[in-house]
Structures
1.
Amino acid sequence: MRGRIVSAALAALLACTLGWAAPLLDNLVVVRDGSSFSVLVEESRGYPAARASALADALGYAHAGNLIQMDGESVRFIAGSPFFAVGGQIYQLANPTYTSGPHLMIPASWALEWLPAARPRQWTYMDGRLVERPSVTVRPPERDHWLVVIDPGHGGRDPGTTGVGGTREKDVTLAIGKRLADRLRRESDIEVALSRNRDTLVSFADRPRAFEQRGRDEVPDLFISIHANSMPRKPHSARGFETYFLAIARTDEALQVALRENASLQFEDGGSAAALDPLNYMLTDLQSAANLQESRLLATSINRSMAATLNGPDLGVKQGPFQVLVGATMPAVLVEVGYLSNRSEERLLRSSSYQAKIADALADAVVNYLADYGQRVWSSYGSGG
Ligand SMILES: [Zn+2]
């Protein structure tokens, strides 16, 4: 039964998540239809709860009295009870609903836990938010090829980071990006565009638009930005690879990586190293939010593939507020292929054999991801969802 009692672990997770988003402590955020909706949450009973009317508005559902009308199904709450009914089935929450003045208050876990479990094709719970799954950004079924944008990070007057031995990030990313493009062009159903194929600077905003700039008006399917990592002090023993998708940073390390990569903005005409407001990346960039789930899957595929072939260590799939991913309206990731601040890894990263190994790992991941993605696209079209 889906409406199982919320486990202690999940309750702790929810509490922790709401507590973590300190500036938004009082809100439950729903991302839907290209907009972000904040629902006021109160904790007068010791657990987060929201007004049924506000919650229904945010979710795009109708509301009347103790009813929330989802598409095709109504949810009937009982004030003062943890039980609720949907289509003749009874479910239970960890905490009861209650009334506050004229308002029915619904525990946040109903929206954050029950809803994504009951309607997995429509809702997903991610990074403290309830996000409606994308339904329009996937490839139209009539197209018989995938469009992949490969973005070698930095370029021109923006060298990126510089290695212990002087290796420039922009050269490593271009070499790997070109190899990856060559490798993917061998696939009959993949078309590739590089955001740059020489030592030149392209703005963050233009990088995902590589096809558009070649006169193509189709929305690409994937965007992969390639980078190399660095520690503030060199040489440094840190090494390994990691893959990011766009979201609020969860750790200080992830935030530091994003800040460093975002500093490229200062090289753009009219650009400045703008103050970073991580929350705004998510809250204002709704198309990316809709692609969050796919971006995470792509990042997972890439990181798994690198783990299988590269020397490692595998630093994992992470999330961060990367400016370059903000403009991407398709599944998009940023790969940090290794540390130039580490002597031995710098040597590897400048060798063409290791660059080829990275390109192969990335290409395998893209091919695998697209095969799965295609299945998800077909099945969603097939069922009219
Ligand atoms: Zn970089």
2.
Amino acid sequence: MTTLIEVKHLSKSYQKKQVIHDISFSINEGEILCLLGPNGAAKSTTINILCGLLNYDQGEIFYRNEKIERNLLYYKKYLGIVPQELALYEDLTAEKNIQFFASLYGLKGEKLKAGIDFALRSVGLLEHRKEKVETFSGGMKRRLNIACAIAHEPELLIMDEPTVGIDPQSRNHILATIRKMRKKGMTILYTTHYMEEVEEISTRIIIMDHGKIIAEGTKEWLKDRKNEKEIVIQLADNSALSLKEIYQIEGIMNVQLEENELKITVIKGVENLDSIIAKLIQQNKKIQNIVIEADNLETVFLDLTGRSLRDVR
Ligand SMILES: Nc1ncnc2c1ncn2[C@@H]1O[C@H](COP(=O)(O)OP(=O)(O)OP(=O)(O)O)[C@@H](O)[C@H]1O
Ligand SMILES: [Mg+2]
């Protein structure tokens, strides 16, 4: 496994407010690393530091084992940057926008032409190449924003919430483009607060909150770290229900009755759902509904922070 970027003990303050607290992480060649975190987690600040757009107070950043402070220019040519805010010229055509950004990376002549074609094709805008950006939908603009970052075929594509506020079709298109870019050999750093996207494309995840890394791993690993599960059973009525009987079942950690809702926390893998149902039937209870908590990143985040990712925005 080759490490492309290594960040060591990075800290950053705006005026007096510290927003990044001593974070360390690496980006490995060929991965889609998702930086997942709510509003204000410092995702953009971290990314902008990596892109050389912001200074930082403490820490070190290495690209292929080379410290990048003094070699920023040399390093930037390996990056493709998709900023959180659209960076496009509305009165230029799609093609001219890509041409502008690709030229900044030194593309000329045939290489430039091929790069523009590659970028337009990758994001599905080939037939709109001659149209001005001002006529584009939000989703098309987002896709063009990506095209501007890939014409020079960067080693590392850094994307800051590239799917915010767009229709599902454009979003799917963007996620498919990212997978294609990975297949072409690009490494991708992708920030988002949508865990559905992370579930779909990540090969590894870093969860950030309040400028700190609170968990790191593959989605399977993160989901597996919880060793308990919650079962919620809706009863027709709760009269004379003995919770003691349910506590006696193996694997039961906690039982709580709120009105007609029975919440049971069990050890993962020892769910014993059949025994729970049998005990309820023995007590003549009518079961109206059973919900078993799904393993997803939302519950992982909730577990780690006590807050829901959906609530924060
Ligand atoms: N230029 C700035 N000056 C002062 N504070 C800032 C500045 N930019 C960001 N911050 C603060 O730094 C913290 C991290 O912000 P940042 O934009 O990096 O978060 P984020 O994870 O990208 O959030 P979002 O999901 O909203 O894009 C926030 O508390 C924010 O208010
Ligand atoms: Mg941001």
3.
Amino acid sequence: MTAAQTLRNADLRHTNGREEVLNLFLDADHALSHSDIENGLGPDHDRVTIYRTLRTFVDKGLLHKVLDDGGNPKYALCRDTCASGHHHHEHVHFKCDNCGQTTCLDQVHIPAVALPEGYNRKEMNLLIQGVCLECNK
Ligand SMILES: [Zn+2]
Ligand SMILES: [Zn+2]
Ligand SMILES: [Zn+2]
């Protein structure tokens, strides 16, 4: 699916900025940080607009936040299971100590965790750190 189609499906008005941000994610096979996105777009893009675009994409179920041990959030594309206001994620994120890239392991699910009574789960994040496939080659 192209960026333009994805925007249309999400009922988002098409802007060049939105399309370019989305294309960065479609081309990447790993999660992107704010600085990855700013560097990927070039200097003619306004930081505030980029942040706003990211927030919109998260709200619309196109991107999800990926927690990072460095404290800077990263973002990754969602699969079709996500919709506006509803994210369904059970996959593990893997951060490579060598190349620093964080990847969605869509096929690896977070194991069921039983919480004590009185605790309600809203979301779960699992970040595994190690050496990725590319760096192991
Ligand atoms: Zn999602
Ligand atoms: Zn790596
Ligand atoms: Zn993910």
4.
Amino acid sequence: MIDSWPTSARLWDRAKASLPGGVSTGMRASMLPHPLFFRSGQGPSLTDVDGHTYLDYVLGWGPVILGHGHPALTDAVARRLPHGATFGAGHELEYLAAEAVIEAIPGVDRVLWSNTGSEADQIALRLARAATGRHRFVKMTGHYHGWSDTFLLGYRPDANGRLDQPGTKGQHKSALADVALATWGDLDSVASILRDPAQDIAALFVEPVLCNSGVIAPPDGYLAGLRALCDETGTVLVFDEVITGFRLARGGATERYGVLPDLVVLAKALAGGYPVAAVAGRASILDQTTQGVVHAGTYNGNPVVLAAVQATIETLSAPGVYPAFEDAGRRLADGMRTTLDKHGVVGAVNQVGPVVQVLPGMDRCDTFTQFLAGDQQWYDAVIVELLRRGVFVLPGGRWYLSTAHTLADVDTTVSAFDEAVAATVLTQGQPRSAMRDESVVG
Ligand SMILES: Cc1ncc(COP(=O)(O)O)c(C=O)c1O
């Protein structure tokens, strides 16, 4: 059992002198018991600077879909490295990797390379505005499309419980003027906005599975309903597949649910951990970058990361990858549900393919409102108990599986989860809304 992380604590102290909060993104400051420092990763495991090894369900917050140090990916990058870091000019991998994306995702004709999901969402909106001559966009509450001023709205309630306020200090209130917030799962809330010409809506952005707030799958027919509304009103439908792309199927949620958006935003799993993003979709929309829509970026189409894209897609294209993800995801989720039941803990577990979400204190979670009612304080205690037992997970309840996680790893993890839940029930009591009367709204 791991009891302390003295070297990590020391390095974090030192890092705080040069990095605000000692971290490179504010979100990592929320890691428990404090941000840890790692030495290396191998397959499904990570080793920290204190020499502790963990089964890793953080996976770099999603990208490391092949596990750490996958030989095909490492070799592709290593083969590319001696030939220069970047050209700022054309090279073969730009179109070879784009062809691999086009072949994998239904309905895609063109690919624009970018560097992060936040950037790619931004160019998707610009393209939609140019294509429609309209200005505003619809965003669902609880959905995340990056940290930009444009999109960091309606994601989490502010201190007064309001979703219609800026998402961060320092964001100009004018960002709110461009967004119309809708409710995930409720077609009527979208229809009333899209059918009102005064709303001036260019695009509808959705995470096709609401991964950032509960891993909530779309209700039956919901994505098709969004498609029909966008067709009716001439609105550009954007699937933000930064999490779901290459993860829920080779063709992402687009393939899994059989509904074709106009634009797909990709990042994370696309390159197995190397920094790249893309907007893919219909030629008529993307070719606008040759007709006056500015899309720039010094590092766009970087050869090293595109070698990673090519190797990642090729590796994920092997037979059996996605059925294995389903098996591992289901086994982890079922094991967690059985564990919660065994300890008399009220909690739901959502799972779509290799993405799993623990939702303490509720019987089910189908809406963003229900998600917000979860008992984070109780789950925070579970996170630390898991870490002590060699399992590294994200804050907030989402777990990612990689191709490197075996069913035996999953079983080991479920045993650790069982011990962690038992330990927290002893120290913390049940999650808050295990008192069933404190009913979950939504
Ligand atoms: C659905 C979704 N869109 C966009 C982003 C932003 O991507 P990035 O962090 O690469 O800017 C994220 C990041 O987690 C995401 O989950």
